[in-house]
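Records of this kind hold a single protein each, on a pair of labelled lines. Below, a sample record shows both lines together.
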Amino acid sequence: MKKIELLQFKKLKDKKILHFITTKQGGVSYGDYADFNLALHVGDEDGLVMENRRKLAENLKVRLEQFVFLNQVHGKRVLVV
């Protein structure tokens, strides 16, 4: 089983801002969505996406219900959550 890899930005971390970025490693999705897809809106199997989300929550020791998942776009709008 591949380990979930979480990355952080040094400047945000230095300011004690809780954040992380996932990589594609450590998930159960396959094919075009391999392997750590967290998006329900792209055509991956919902069950696999939810398993990936559960794995992330477990890795971070938080409840899945505490997450906010957004549809990422490449633009200039910023959403504060």
Observations:
- The chain has one domain: 6-66.
- The mean pLDDT is 93.
- Residues 6-66 form one domain.
